[in-house]
Specification:
The protein has 446 residues and is α+β, with helices and mostly antiparallel strands. The chain has two domains: 2-87, no CATH class; 134-443, DD-peptidase/beta-lactamase superfamily (Beta-lactamase, 3-Layer(aba) Sandwich). Helices cover 34% and strands 16% of the residues. It contains 13 helices and 15 strands. It has helices at 2-42, 47-52, 100-104, 134-145, 184-198, 222-226, 243-249, 254-259, 275-289, 296-305, 330-341, 356-360, 433-443, and strands at residues 62-66, 71-76, 79-87, 91-94, 153-160, 163-169, 179-180, 311-312, 326-328, 345-346, 349-350, 377-378, 399-403, 407-412, 417-423. The strands form four sheets. Strands 6-5-15-14-13-12 form a six-stranded antiparallel β-sheet, sandwiched between helices. The chain has a four-stranded antiparallel β-sheet with strand order 1-2-3-4. A hairpin with a 2-residue loop joins strand 5 and strand 6 (163-169). The longest helix has 41 residues, at 2-42.
Length: 446
């Protein structure tokens, strides 16, 4: 009897293992291939630093890096071989059944859009009219890099009145090294939408009309998608084989995966943060822009703000994965933040339409504690009760782009501050951003 029970338990464990292995294996190997390829070819990092950093928890996946062909293949015990390939200008894409020549045709020469060479933002670290206490600011920087838990901060920058006051980088990283923004890319999609609005080519309150005639999902608007109130049944969970992991790492078309999702709530009535909504916006942008789709971010945003290192990455079908895949240097992520800190104006040229920044940080009424606007996170607090907010000790006008592993581009208008933090903290909750920002605020007197 005991032997029977033991054998039954062993069989059950084997079945569970096989279920997990074959269910999660394709996701895991695709994730490894994509991260390795992006970090090595888009970010130009040493493979050893990637294996010791982003992929330290998956050493059992076999990886082959072909530097000449600029592609990475990952497999798990000989199963689930997945390949990611790099294309200049549109980053790394997972093949996922697509032919390599079909994926690599999306290349573009992004340098053609830049009329001036890359320029480093100038540091102005001195006691400015007794406005900043540099010793206190240095203490804030020390805390940004060294907290009770290991947080792996890679870059931290503080700007005051659009002037770079202090910056610091981890060993192996610097101001010009492209780094992953993950979901900060969603805020970049916000900018692209704003530019099309300024050009008169997009009405954010008009129905998107992406489904067959008569489908209730056609009621959806870009405004509702930007505010994460699509009502689509897409769940933002990352552990296991979920909607978001399948979309990013097991679907040739990230948009098609989301467009198949049914309505769970009437559009505009329920706030639910989902990466899928951003990729629907990216799909709609391609419908509007046509052949100029791949050039558009460079021509209308990156070149005009001097973001030379910026590179948005595509899926196998050539769609920008606006939810998650963009690399840029610390200085270029800062340039993006400065655009918003200056009301959408860059060196005298209006890039975003007048009022767009205010619109972007207008709370979605359905979002708890006024936490979300139009593809930007907020600290606004509850309506009529602003003290009930996500970070109670921080200003309620703070708004920010945020990404996986603790990527932040934060704007605090009331203090004329812009703060950029890049790093690799596996759980964003482990990083005391509220404490860091409080220390930064104490260093400034206005």
């Amino acid at each position: 009897m005991i032997l029977f029970i033991a054998l039954s338990l062993l069989l059950a464990l084997c079945l569970v293992f096989l279920y997990i292995f074959f269910r999660l294996g394709p996701i895991l190997t695709a994730f490894v291939a994509k991260v390795y390829a992006s970090c090595v070819f888009t970010s130009r990092r040493n493979p050893a630093s990637v294996s010791q950093g982003e992929l330290a928890l998956v050493p059992f996946v076999n990886v082959n890096i072909d530097k000449e062909a600029r592609k990475v293949t990952a497999s798990l015990g000989g199963f689930f071989s997945k390949t990611a390939v790099y294309k200049p200008g549109t980053g790394c894409s997972l093949l996922l059944g697509s032919k390599e020549e079909d994926v690599t045709k999306n290349c573009l020469d992004k340098d053609q859009f830049f009329t001036t060479p890359p320029q480093q933002l100038r540091l102005h670290a001195k006691e400015q009219d007794h406005v900043v206490n540099l010793r206190q600011l240095e203490q804030a920087f020390d805390y940004a890099f060294h907290q009770p838990k290991k947080v792996n901060t890679r870059a931290f920058l503080v700007f005051h009145h659009s002037t770079l006051v202090m910056e610091k980088y981890a060993e192996g990283f610097d101001a010009q090294l492209p780094q992953a923004g993950w979901s900060m890319c969603k805020s970049v999609i916000n900018a692209l939408v704003g530019i099309l609005v300024k050009q008169g080519r997009l009405d954010i309150h008009a129905p998107v009309n992406l489904w067959p005639s008569g489908d209730l999902r056609n009621q959806l608007t870009i405004h509702q998608l930007l505010q994460m109130s699509s009502g689509l049944g897409f769940k933002e969970k990352y552990l296991g084989r979920t909607d978001v992991t399948q979309m990013l790492f097991d679907s040739p078309s990230v948009a098609d995966f989301v467009l198949k999702k049914p309505l769970k709530y009437p559009p505009g009535t329920f706030w639910d943060y989902t990466s899928g909504t951003t990729n629907i916006i990216s799909f709609k942008l391609r419908e509007i822009l046509g052949a100029s789709y791949h050039n558009f971010p460079y021509q209308e945003l990156f070149a005009k703000t001097g973001m030379h290192s910026a590179e948005m990455e595509c899926d196998a079908n050539g769609l920008y994965v606006g939810s998650s895949f963009m690399f840029a240097s610390a200085h270029d992520w800062a340039r993006f933040g400065l655009l918003y800190a200056n009301d959408g104006v860059w060196e005298g040229e209006r890039i975003l339409p007048e009022g767009w920044v205010d619109y972007s940080r207008q709370p979605n009424p359905a979002a708890e504690m006024g936490r979300y606007g139009a593809h930007f996170w907020l600290n606004a607090g509850e309506k009529d009760h602003p003290e009930k907010r996500f970070w109670p000790s921080l200003p309620n006008d703070l708004y920010y782009a945020s990404g996986f592993e603790g990527q932040f581009v934060m704007v605090i208008p009331s203090h004329s501050l812009l703060i950029v933090r890049l790093g690799q903290t596996l759980r964003k909750e482990d990083y005391d951003m509220e404490g860091v920002i409080n220390k930064v605020l104490k260093a400034f007197k206005d």
